[in-house]
Specification:
Chain lengths: 384, 490
């Protein structure tokens, strides 16, 4: 091991890599997280903060952990429980009711609410709402605070977070990754975790592994503060988002743009006039806040696997490699994904849930033109 | 794999962003001297020209110090839009000439975004500018765009700065010269460079008292002419505090950083330490910028005469950068250093978000969050150990610059304060994002949304298999759990 190395080197300082490193550090493991930029600078610091992914096998663990995270990490994440999802059209209402049925089938309470109850729970919503559902668990947190909380907690446990350090490749010997190569030299390792968001596929390719990913840009807007609602996790009407503890309304939704991401990461993360369509839906959903000013917008780039589900895998060749892409739903799941990945690293398997359906093997017979088939390709710029 | 893949992603942005409501040959943002001159010369060359300017801005935006640092020192005259428009024409006669040449002039119309295809974005049918008035927002296409957005004030905090009567040179000049709506009578000028002396001269010409010119550095930064020679010039001194009552500043204490102080009575403190080229539209659009102290700070990278790195986008006037006789960054740094040495950590740096100097440099979260023990061990220096300071990161953690004024009151001073505290020459520019003017949801909203947008809207990616409950994957229940397009899965 080189002097810079660690027993486990984690490539990627987004929530997935950071949570993994934090769990490993909690187990007494010596860890280094390497990120090409600042921690959480990509999707992990640019998302909606939602934490209600009932479809995931990590969901139960996510729900168990979130209420504990501030104490476990030692820094505030702004986590808040519960969600209210409000319909403005019959089709939306039907889909929220279906969602509630899924929640309830898994043993998580989600009640139908009528229009009046929606207004009581979330006073900013439209009196013309058609009701919706009240999700009694789940919740949301502040992505940027959460990212920094993980990073600081890792440092408090003796781990290292190395920023502005781009991973360029790997050294292998005898079926193992022995070092991670970066623009700051090689970091020796006994095990490696790759959780590099959109670049995860490109990095694995260097190890002869084919992880199919396509990346896209998604946009959000935020307003000046509104009076605090009792439950901040209010969305619906084609939007996801939340009211922050400061009162700001932060919402996203709607079309994404497929982009090519190079080895160095997204070149830019611009927003577009789509922010007007977001503003429209927020104003419809929360008309009592329609006079509030939009003060910023931002975009983030997220990767998707062909079925939109995460890949979490401990490989057999190299056998000390674990990789994860959370495929666009990774923020809320991060307390649990890191826990699971840390167990894959240390014990070769996850003890608290079954992850077998999230293996990379499911894409073994994927046609090479899978992106074209789905229309998941970047738009060729006008005039070219 | 799914059989329903047909080469089209209905939820992708392709074909959904609308064409602009109209397109003009030349669109000019900013009807100050530079923008108006550009409009005139384009019109003379035969072009169809639309010249927009956000002025007169509403009284409520002025209260938010947007676009300039008005410091609450405007008279009620600013509430009468007709009068304000008349003032704009009266003080810029070239506008009449532009109108006569056929230039279309849209006042009280702000530009809140410039959108062009480029890295990470290819979905726009054509380059557009987002415009808005008080009622609505719309998009205008252009063959050529000229940004003539001028310069912004650079406020700096000191004890008592967060009250009416503390303002910027730009806000002062606009209220006095353009709107004849300045509510003060007796001012103190901070700074002694050309901007400061111009401000003092303007004040004098309007019969206002100038109680003093205060310079933190040991020498005056420009030659004080005979007409200003009777004004006390207090070099090597700094403002220690501004005190006042309900209507704001009534007096200030000035003196060397280490004291003693003397009291000056005044109703207004005008900060003339510098102005920043107004590059927000260009930055949000992805145009190249460079930090050039001799051109006033962060300025456009110029690839030709007025040409920016964005195709068909040009800059003119102050927003293109202006010659500064002194090193603008060093001068501003000198002032920040002096101001940081008076007052304690409780001085508010970010008024909107109530972030104090101590919390900024302690990298502490806002007061509504708990501050667990471990946070006490964190500050700007521990963060610096992780890598160079980045103002956008500090903003996320402390909320400084996150407020409704869109950091107009604190962007530069936070950057300077961070640079000063970490002994860095500079910190990178905190990015501007559309809308670069605070716009109500209902105004920004696209109420006439294109059918393609409505039909292709999904809350997330519209990937049918993404939200299938884990237990159902690979079972006969899976098909029924596939997301129906447009339903909200999460
Ligand atoms: C607008 C938007 C809204 C979203 N809303 C939600 C939501 O409400 N709830 C939710 O759960 N999820 C949401 N998501 C998705 C969520 O943000 C991501 O799934 C999650 O952040 C993924 O985290 P990650 O750590 O796996 O990847 P990333 O955040 O992409 O982190 C990967 C990191 O790896 C680093 N890296 C990449 N390549 C290299 C290299 N070669 N060397 C070194 N470092 C490298 C990058 O710099 C980056 O920091 C949203 C995403 C977006 C964009």
């Amino acid at each position: 091991m080189t002097s810079k190395g660690a027993s486990v080197v984690i490539v990627g300082g987004g929530v997935t890599g950071l949570s993994t490193a934090w769990w490993l550090a909690r187990s007494g493991c010596d860890v280094r997280v390497l990120d090409k930029g600042i921690v959480g600078w990509e999707a992990s610091g640019r998302n909606g903060g939602g934490a209600s992914h009932y479809h995931s096998p990590l969901y139960a663990e996510e729900q168990r952990l979130w209420p504990l995270m501030d104490d476990l990490l030692g820094y505030p994440t702004e986590y808040r429980r519960e969600r209210v999802i409000v319909a403005m059209s019959p089709a939306q209402l039907a889909s929220y009711h279906k969602m509630a049925a899924n929640f309830n089938a898994l043993g998580y309470a989600a009640d139908h609410i009528d229009s009046r109850q929606a207004l009581e729970l979330a006073p900013l919503v439209s009196p013309h709402n058609l009701g919706g559902i009240h999700v009694k668990f789940g919740g949301h947190a502040n992505p940027q605070r959460t990212v920094q909380a993980y990073a600081w907690a890792i440092q408090d446990l003796g781990g290292k977070v190395v920023q502005n350090c781009a991973v360029t490749g790997f050294q292998t010997r005898g079926g193992k990754v022995t070092a991670v190569e970066t623009d700051q030299g090689a970091f020796g390792c006994e095990a490696v975790v790759v959780a590099a968001g959109p670049q995860t596929g490109m990095l694995l390719e260097k190890l002869g592994i084919d992880l199919p990913l396509a990346s896209a840009r998604a946009e959000m807007i935020v307003t000046e503060p509104a009076p605090l609602m009792a439950i901040g996790g209010v969305d619906g009407n084609g939007l996801y988002g939340r009211q922050t503890l400061r009162g700001n309304l932060a919402y996203g939704g709607g079309p994404h743009e497929w982009v090519e991401v190079s080895a160095t990461g997204p070149e830019a993360r611009p927003t577009t006039p789509l922010i007007r369509n977001l503003a429209k839906r927020v104003a419809e959903l929360l008309p009592s806040a329609a006079h509030l000013r939009v003060i910023r917008s931002w975009a983030g780039v997220v990767e998707n696997t062909p079925d939109g589900r995460p890949v979490i895998e401990r490989f057999s060749n190299p056998d000390n490699l674990t990789a994860a892409t959370m495929s666009g739903v990774g923020f809320g799941l991060s307390p649990a994904s890191g826990h699971a990945i840390s167990q894959l690293v240390l014990e070769g398997q996850c003890r608290f849930t079954d992850l077998s359906k999230l293996g990379i093997g499911r894409f073994a017979n994927l046609p090479s033109d899978w992106r074209e088939q789905r229309g998941w390709t970047a738009i060729s710029p006008a005039g070219s | 794999m799914r059989p329903d893949v047909n080469g089209i992603d209905r939820a992708a942005i392709n074909g959904k962003l609308p064409d602009p409501e109209r397109t003009v040959q030349v669109l000019i943002i900013g009807a100050g001297p530079a923008g108006t001159a550009a409009a005139i010369s384009e019109a003379k060359a035969g072009a169809e020209v639309l010249l927009v300017d956000e002025n007169p801005v509403t009284a409520s935006l002025m209260g938010l110090d947007t676009p300039l640092y008005f410091g609450g020192r405007m008279t009620t005259a600013v509430q009468r839009q007709e009068r304000m428009i008349a003032q704009i024409f009266a003080t810029n006669p070239a506008l009449e000439e532009a109108l006569e040449l056929g230039v279309e002039v849209a006042l009280a119309t702000c530009a809140w975004g410039v959108f062009v295809n480029g890295p990470g974005l290819a979905a726009l049918p054509r380059p557009v500018v987002g415009l808005a008035n008080e009622m609505r927002a719309w998009l205008v296409g252009f063959d050529k765009l000229v940004l003539a957005t001028g310069a912004r004030d650079i406020p700096m905090a000191f004890p008592g700065w967060d009250q009416p009567g503390v303002m910027g040179a730009g806000g002062f000049t606009a209220l006095v010269e353009r709107y004849d709506a300045f509510a003060g009578r007796r001012i103190v000028v901070l700074g002694s460079g050309e901007l400061a002396l111009k401000t003092a001269t303007l004040a004098r010409s309007r019969g206002l008292d100038v109680a003093a010119i205060v310079e933190a550095l040991p020498q005056a930064q420009a030659v004080v002419g005979p007409d200003l020679a009777d004004i006390p010039l207090l070099t090597g001194q700094v403002i220690h505090t501004a005190q006042g009552g309900l209507t704001g500043v009534e007096r200030i204490q000035v003196g060397p950083a280490g004291g003693p102080t003397t009291e000056l009575s005044c109703d207004t403190v005008v900060m003339c330490i510098g102005m920043a080229p107004a590059i927000e539209l260009l930055n949000a659009a992805g145009g190249g910028l460079t930090l050039d102290s001799q051109r006033g700070g962060h300025v456009p990278v110029l690839t030709g005469k007025g040409a920016t790195t964005l195709p068909n986008v040009f800059v003119t006037g102050d927003c293109a950068g202006f010659g500064a006789p002194q090193d603008s960054q060093a001068y501003q740094m000198g002032w920040i250093r002096a101001l940081l040495s008076v007052g304690d950590g409780q001085v508010m740096v970010c008024q909107c978000e109530e972030v104090t100097r101590a919390d900024l440099l302690g990298v502490q979260p806002p007061n509504y969050l708990q501050r667990p023990e471990r946070l006490a061990g964190r500050d700007i220096h521990t963060l610096l150990a992780d890598g160079p300071i980045n103002q956008d990161q500090i903003k996320r953690l402390t909320r400084a610059c996150m407020g409704a004024c869109q950091a107009r009151r604190c962007r530069e001073q936070v950057a300077l304060t961070l640079a000063c505290a970490t002994q860095s020459a500079r910190v990178p520019l905190a990015g501007f994002r559309a809308p670069v003017r605070p716009l109500p949801l209902k105004v920004l909203a696209d109420w006439e949304e294109a059918a393609a947008m409505t039909a292709g809207w999904d809350v997330w990616f519209g990937i049918p298999s993404q939200w299938v409950p884990y237990a159902d994957i690979g079972t006969e229940r899976e098909a029924a759990q596939m997301v129906v397009f447009g339903e909200d899965p999460a």
